[in-house]
Amino acid sequence: MSFRVVRTSKFRHVYGQALKREQCYDNIRVSKSSWDATFCAVNPKFLAIIVESAGGGAFIVLPHNKVGRLAADHPLVGGHKGPVLDIAWCPHNDNVIASGSEDCVVKVWHIPDGGLVKTLTEPIVDLVFHQRRVGLVLWHPTALNVLLTAGSDNQVAIWNVGTGEALVKIDCHPDIVYSACFNWDGSQLLTTCKDKKIRIINPRSGEVESEAVCHEGSKATRAIFLRHGLVFTTGFSKMSERQYSLRTPDALNEPIVMVELDTSNGVMFPLYDPDTNLVYLCGKGDSVIRYFEITAEPPFVHYINTFQTPDPQRGIGMMPKRGCDVTSCEISRFYRLNNSGLCQVITMTVPRKSELFQEDLYPDTFGDSAALSAEEWIEGKDAEPILISLKDGYKPPESKATITVTKRNMLDKGQGKTGKTQNQTQISDKTLQEFADEIRKLKAMIVKHENRIRALEAEVALSKANADEDGSGGDGLNAGHPLGDDEV
After folding, report:
1. I need a surface site. Which of 10, 347, 352, 355 has the fewest CB within 10 A?
2. In which order are the strands placed within the sheet that holds 96-101?
């Protein structure tokens, strides 16, 4: 007699649940760009979505409490001259976001607490290096103000945003870079390229440490570093079947696991939770989110379940663990963009009866403090990320001072347009709110005056009509003498 032993895992019963429509975000003109990106970035303070915009590129930034239907004239972040292709929040400052665009420029923005009250067109800094469109922006996980960008010119640049200069320029790719990912401490860089190869690169020197063919299909591939050093990839076979694989960095050309999923043609984005070792696969155009647990036991990648929705997804964003609700055992939260303009919020929950803090579900996670400065990192120093406990919940801090440091560095480097931008962005949130209140009062006063003018005009017209009737009445004797006595 044979017995089938069920694998023990605390994540076997994870289930997804979509919030009600009134708790989601509606009337969003999601970008129609054909670029393979998620179009969405989330942190504990804000939700950012790339949108359609006339006369350039833009994205919208919403505080999490601004749910419901958005106004058509909602303020945007709109300084790009071409469509925005990718956006990424800084992991060490929840008010700072980077954007890459078809205009070949990368811009870094500061979003005030409470969100935007008017369209933002002046960035903190412009990063100009790429000769063709920039389709990938990625922040370093442990070093402050270090940003990676990749363009269709096959170049990868690593910047110190504090000074606005490129620290490293990597040109080892013969074709377009599809994806990039740093490892746990940021000492290695993993990229996938249109030449079907996956590369592990030293991000300081640009030297390729190892490379191998990733997936044999010609469509876009994605690869991520897992917490303990393994590499997880998604791509296509020669027959255009979607695949995922698990590899070790020492033997990239020999996958530990290679599994074919289906024959859909949408690119799959792997979203990884390092605390639980869960990987969520979200395909562009799919109506499902599959999730897997990665363990040290064969077959290593264990399928858990699929979250099904009726509508296909155009983009997706994943909330960092800091923004999850620990009181309801929520381990992940996704923001799913539909073609209809709805941003649907989906929570992934582990069913538990106890309402106490579950320490096994919430180990210490990524905090919002950098372990290194950009200068220390480029000099060769590595450090593990600074972790925080979620036992008492996470409260997003007010705007950090790091953005001020960035501004000062930029002013030291050079004046002119950039210096002017820094001074402009130092306006406090309180001052902006006062301006908004004053504008609202002026608009109300104008409306009041317009109504009064309209009423006076109606009275004048009415009295004139009455006077005309009185003048044209009677026996007609005065019809030929319209002038008064003063003329005599």
Report:
1. 355
2. 84-89, 96-101, 105-110, 125-128
**Which tokens hold the place of 200?**
């592990």
Please name the amino acid found at residue 359. Answer: E
Digit-coded pLDDT (tens) for 299-328: 899 999 999 999 999 999 999 999 999 999
Half-sphere exposure of 165 (CA within 13 A, CB side): 10
First to last CA, the chain: 130
Return the ∠ at Cα 299 (arms to 141 and 220), rounded to 5°.
Answer: 50
Residue 413's contacts (CB-CB under 8 Å, 6 or more residues apart) are 163, 164, 165
**How many of the other CB atoms lie within 10 Å of CB of 396?**
15
Q: How far apart are CA 132 and CA 151, in angstroms?
A: 6
**ω into 385 cis (within 30 of 0):** no
Using left for φ > 0, alpha for ψ between -120 and 50, and beta otherwise, residue 115 falls in left
416-95-339 Cα angle (round to 5): 110
Q: Once rounded to an integer, what is the mean pLDDT over residues 155-161?
A: 96
Q: Give the model confidence (pLDDT) of 234-289 as tens digits.
A: 999 999 999 999 999 999 999 999 999 999 999 999 999 999 999 999 999 999 99
Residues in the chain: 488
In the Cβ-directed half-sphere of 483, how many Cα atoms lie within 13 Å?
4
Instruction: Give φ, ψ of 375 to 5 degrees.
Output: -65, -40
| Other beta carbons within 10 Å of 353 | 5
Q: Which residues pair with 246 in a beta bridge?
A: 232, 257
